[in-house]
Design a protein that fits this description.
Organism: Rotaria magnacalcarata
Radius of gyration: 21 Å
Pfam family, one: DDE_Tnp_1_7
Helix content: 25-40%
Number of helices: 6
Domain PiggyBac transposable element-derived protein: 2-92
Structural class: alpha+beta
InterPro entries: PGBD
Oligomer: single chain
Protein name: PiggyBac transposable element-derived protein domain-containing protein
Strand order of the largest sheet: 1-2
Number of domains: 3
Shape: extended
Distance between the termini: 34 Å
Length: 184
């Protein structure tokens, strides 16, 4: 909830001029700060050394992240899904505004198999039910290796601008029986 408002200080949710009722009426500021100060979700003695190849930079919050992630995955997905990169604070931008899955980026860990962005998209797609006609949208930064198409002969940006607002160009193809559409 706090990521939606983006106040520079957490205390702002309780001040008179910027009070957010849904937060401030749930818990007093002092109680929130005390819980935040003392909340621990893991035993720090189990944390691996930074030199260990299995070291997790999000170790202290990983159990909480896993609970959130598992609950997101239980939500029935919409037909149209979007993969996009976000920097916290986060506000979901789907039709319903619901986040169905996420990857908490803590820095480059392993060598990517297909490329950093491609690996992320493929990992997030693992939870999408197969053969159910879901539509997946992502920007040009997240190009899948199958979609790095060349010689599409699509209109360039200048031509589309000349066509006026709403002008598009697209190409459709099939890869392994799945219909893919590139749109500009």
């Amino acid at each position: 909830m706090t990521g939606i408002y983006g106040f520079p200080q957490q205390r702002s949710y309780w001040t008179n001029s910027t009070r957010v009722e849904s937060i401030a009426s749930t818990m007093s500021r002092d109680r929130f700060l005390e819980i935040k100060k003392n909340l621990h979700v893991v035993d720090n003695t189990n944390q691996l050394s930074q030199n260990d190849p299995n070291y997790d930079r999000a170790f202290k919050v990983r159990p909480l992240l896993n609970i959130i992630k598992n609950n997101f995955r239980k939500i029935q997905k919409e037909e149209q899904l979007c993969v996009d990169e976000q920097i916290i604070p986060f506000k979901a931008d789907s039709i319903s505004g619901i986040c169905y899955d996420f990857i908490f980026y803590t820095g480059k860990a392993n060598e990517p198999q297909y490329g950093f962005c491609t690996d992320i998209v493929l990992k997030l797609c693992e939870t999408i039910p197969k053969m159910m006609n879901y539509k997946l949208y992502f920007d040009n930064y997240l190009l899948l290796f199958h979609l790095k198409l060349t010689n599409l002969n699509m209109k360039d940006i200048k031509s589309l601008k000349e066509g006026g607002r709403g002008s598009i160009d697209y190409r459709i193809t099939q890869v392994d029986g799945v219909e893919l559409c590139a749109t500009r």
